[in-house]
Amino acid sequence: MDWELISTSLLIFLARVTDVSLGTLIYSSVIQGRKYAAATFGFFEVLLWITVVSKVVTHLTSPVYSVAFALGFASGQLVGISIEQWLGHGARIIRIFSRKGLEIAKKLRSKGMAVSVFKGEGRDGPVDMLFIETPRKNLKNVVTIAKKIDPKHFILVDTANVISKRP
Question: What is the pTM of this model?
Answer without folding.
Answer: 0.65
